[in-house]
Amino acid sequence: MILERTNRIIACAEVPSVDSLAPQVRIYVINLDRSPERWERLRGQAAQYGLSVTRIPAVDGSTIPERDRVDFQPRQFIYHNGRKLLAGEYGCYRSHLLALQQFVASGDKMAIIMEDDVELNQRLIPRALAAMDSVCGARLVKLVNHRLVGFKPISETAEYDIVGRCMHGPQGSAACYIVSRKAAKKLLVALKPMLLPYDVALERGWSTGVETFATLENLADFSPFRADTTIGKRVHYRAVKRPFLLRATAHWFRVCDQLRRWIYTVKAKPQSIVGSAEQR
Known about the structure:
It is a single chain. The protein is α/β, with parallel strands linked by helices. The protein has one domain: Spore Coat Polysaccharide Biosynthesis Protein SpsA, Chain A, CATH 3.90.550. The protein contains ten helices and eight strands. It has helices at residues 18-21, 36-49, 74-81, 87-106, 124-134, 181-190, 198-202, 205-208, 234-240, 248-267; strands at 26-31, 53-57, 110-115, 140-142, 149-156, 162-168, 176-180, 212-215. A hairpin with a 5-residue loop joins strand 5 and strand 6. The longest helix has 20 residues, at 87-106. Residues 1-16 and 273-280 have low confidence and may be disordered. It holds the Pfam family Glyco_transf_25. Keywords: Transferase. InterPro entries: Glyco_trans_25. This is Glycosyl transferase family 25.
């Protein structure tokens, strides 16, 4: 789809230029201590492309007894999801919050947070910053998604990427996203307690209050480690799922949430960026 470009420059006072921010954007990589080979692979790629990466020691949910889980309400999780929580999901959730906390403490304006089964590439930071810059008011852009159903284009970036929102979801994956410091602060409050898996909770901008978008194409590829998930496989999810009738609350929640998603997507107005586009 070809997007119309207007003759005005969208002013986003809180979003500095791509060129000025690129050297300052740090990439936070969530990595379990028992997966050193994943970190070594990413560290090698970072050296190859001249990227700044910081390792976030991931929380291993399998080592934390259920009674010691913080900011978690088992009954509320079952109400919203129709199943029990997997230990790996809890670890994933806590790990991403740790990454957000470390980013906020750094004082940096923006950061890319990613999981260790994603590959780095030379254009990741420029494309991610261009995505944030292209949508006035954006505070978080998902750079990797498993599915995009009913995608509504909002803008085209200076890097030729399309940014928008989805009419249907969840889109799946919190494997890689760029977030502003202001948004990270808000997420650290809005995402507690844990009511949904992290990837589902992250994209619910209508609930978190964080302007959230996604790129039409993944800006990073998955590594060969993707198949060896540390969170849980289908058999594990099926094992904790309640019978159909006992999942009625979860079905009702998803219907209501889908309606909110539609409204959130429809309300998003198409935008364009001209400053860098006209120079191409």
